[in-house]
Amino acid sequence: MRKPVQGACLLTALACAAYGQTFEVASVKVSQLFRQGGEGSRRSKIDTTPGSLTMYNVGLQEVIRWAYNVTPFQIGPGLTEGDRYDILAKAAGPATVDEMRPMLQRLLAERFKLAVHRETKEMSAYALVEAKGGHKMKQSEAGDGPGIVPTEGPARIALDAHKASLDQLGMFLSGPLRTPVVDMTGLKGKFDFVLDITAYVPQEKDRLPGEPPPDPVSVLQTVLPKQLGLRLDARKLPIEMVMIDHVEKAPVEN
Question: Which of 199, 207, 229, 243 could form a disulfide with 211 if both were Cys (CB 3.0 to 4.6 A apart)?
Fold first, then answer.
């Protein structure tokens, strides 16, 4: 077990060195919103600007997922639900999201004593591929943007994307599908698009008593080709897992 942990620490250090910096300033505190409980105490928010990362009311698993750019299904067992945290981190200069991920990995190792190793496991997953006729998304200019912003409410259920990668889309789709979604389109760069499923998901008040909600696989297999020119293929795929070797729930003081 010792060798994978040492290897993971080395990889993290090399990644941070490659991008030049760890965060220059960082604050990690237990979220007061979570401590107070009540409505909204489970909601989290993550914002980025070039060189700045702000996380409000985030669980430790969510932080690790962001740092390692993986879905919930790629985090190994052993990480139980606990406190939620507010994390404010700033680099010495402008940095992209991809540059800040290894910085957050280093911060997790410093403040939470996080040690991980990676394993590859074959499992049932969905491959995101182009549908017949090709994709219908707009190629966006290079650089960071807001990515994918979900909208959920009685009037609209959608994903609004600006300068978003298809890896990000796979991350969002993996939630309702409850399995990894891997971008295998071969499309490079980032895209602007809207994926709106409002018309395909009737509100609970509009469903008959005992009628189950629509199957997310069926909904997405209908909507993705029409709106984005993409589709999902069920396959067995090698999926990289992030296995937790050690983590402490109480962060080191700022």
Answer: 207
Q: Is the dihedral of CA 40, 168, 218, 77 positive or negative?
A: negative
Segment 68-106, tens digit of pLDDT: 999 989 998 878 777 899 999 999 999 988 899 999 999
For strands 191-196 and 84-90, give the pairing.
unpaired
* Cα angle for residues 197, 199, 203 (degrees, 5° grid): 95
Q: Residue 205's Cα: distance from chain center in Å?
A: 31
Write out pLDDT tens, residues 18-43. 445 689 999 999 998 766 665 555 68
Amino acid in the structure at residue 194: V
Helix (H, G, I), strand (E, B) or coil at 16: helix
- Residues forming beta bridges with residue 183, ordered by sequence position: 128
- Two structure tokens written together for 203: 């509100």
Q: Which of 199, 128, 129 is nearest to 158 (CA)?
A: 199
Bridge partners of 159, per DSSP, are 150, 195
Q: What does residue 178 show for φ and ψ, rounded to 5 degrees? A: 55, 40
Rg of the chain over all Cα atoms, to the nearest angstrom: 19
Helix axis angle, 97-111 to 2-19, nearest 10°: 140
**At 200, which amino acid appears?**
Y
In one-letter notation, the amino acid at residue 90 is K
State phi, psi for 148 to the nearest 5 degrees. Answer: -105, 125
Classify residue 174 by burial, with Cβ atoms within 10 Å: 0-12, 13-18, 19+: buried
**133, 138, 142, 143: CA torsion to nearest 10:** -130
